[in-house]
Amino acid sequence: MTRRAACVVQAMREAPVGVFDSGVGGLSVLKEIQALLPSESLLYVADCGHIPYGEKSPEFIRQRCAVMADFFQRQGAKALVLACNTATVAAVADLRQRYPQWPLVGMEPAVKPAAAATRSGTVGVLATTGTLQSAKFAALLDRFASDIRVITQPCPGLVELIETGDLHSDALRALLRGYVEPLLAAGCDTIILGCTHYPFLKPLLAQMLPPSITLIDTGAAVARQLQRLLAEQNLLAAGPPRETQFWTSASPEHLGNILPVLWNKSGVVRSFDL
Fold it and tell me: Is 84 a catalytic residue?
């Protein structure tokens, strides 16, 4: 390999990874990626100006995902993570067709590990309406949950509260309890957190659930899949990473204010006005 070619390969390895969500929920996935791949430079877009995706049409979500994917392409991202279950359901197939050489990682509710974990044979799913009504989710149930009972619970309102940085209020607690109690009454011993916002509620859920209940989300699995795809293409960064960059389609000041709560540190946030 010539010196110039070696420099090109090195630049590709050190290129950033793009991550996006309809809002701040994807920060839970970003944390998992940074924990597993600390040498990677990360870019994050929170499409907060159009939240919640769970109540939007698939066509609208596909259009937003195309806008953000194009943005990350222009930023030189070497891989893309759709840190949103609803966006994955609506758009990941289209994006893979549009960018066949680009490593893409999507999210889906963790039906397979939940089916393996349950002892009672009954699994609960907390998710957005859009995820639960999708054909992709129905296919997951057909494939991995044929031998168990799955109780689904749409959770309108949770995402909006978490978007404000609210993880502890009485209003949030009451709303969450109303969604969890039917799952417990149905005998669920395993609950899937089917939205990237919901892992931020684990401390609150731990207070209201019996210790025998297992909570499952897919953030760590997404980070491992990203690691596999980057390794396959010899794109793992050596580091050191650059500072994580943030954009939002809503108020940069608002996201900047809640980053210390959800990301555990502050960061510079720019406006995403596409």
Answer: yes
